[in-house]
Amino acid sequence: MAAIRFSAVSKRYANGYDALRGVDFELESGEMVFLTGHSGAGKSTLLKLLTLVERPSRGEVWVGDQSLAELDKRQIPHYRRSLGVVYQNHRLLADRSVFQNIALPLQIAGYSDEDIGRRVRAALDRVGLLEAESASPMALSGGEQQRIGIARAIVHKPRLLIADEPTGNLDPRLSLDIMQLFEQFNRAGTTVLIATHDVALIKRMKHRVLILDKGRMRHV
Amino acid sequence: MSKSAAKPVRGASGHRITRADRFKRWLGRHRFEASEALRRLIKTPIAALMTVSMLAVALAVPGFLFTLVLNLEQLSPAADLKPQLAVYLKPGADERRVDIISRELLLRDDLVSVELISPDTGADDFRQRSELGDLLDLFETNPLPAVILIVPREQSTQALQAMQQSLFAYDEVDSVELDIEWLVRLGAILNSFERISLILSLLLALTVLLVVANTVRALISSRLEEIEVSLLIGATSGWVRRPFLYAGLWYGLCGALFALVLIYLALVLVESPLRDLTSLYLGNFELRGLGIQGVVTLLVLGSLLGWGGANLAVSRLLTQFDAR
Question: For residue B141, what are the domain limits?
Answer without folding.
Answer: 85-179
